[in-house]
User: What shape does this take?
Amino acid sequence: MKTRAFLVVSLLLWVSLASINCRKQKNEWKGTITKKDGVFIVKNPKQPVYINAEFKFEQDLKIGQASGKPEYLFSQIRDFDVDLEGNIYVIDIKEKDIRVFDKNGAAESQNGKYF
Assistant: This one.
């Protein structure tokens, strides 16, 4: 189960990197956004923005291990998030804790305990 959670975190990080890579292209969205009676109406054009988009996944960061230090072992990841400073918060629902990692993937804890 811990290996599965490790794979989930790795996959989510790769998907995040792919979406950042797509933003680097210079294509412009040709749709419109209007507001009517307090409701935003979005109209997308028939022609996609990225016609020949190619994705290349490269591992940038890996958090988690199959065995080793407990702060890097996951049981059942429920969610994760990243703050403006790049700190990574991982919710392990089975272990009932929130793990905090810096932007380089190093575990942070207070007095040896998780949050």
Summary: DSSP finds one helix and six strands in the chain. Strands lie at 32-36, 39-43, 77-82, 88-92, 97-101, 107-108. Residues 2-108 form one domain.
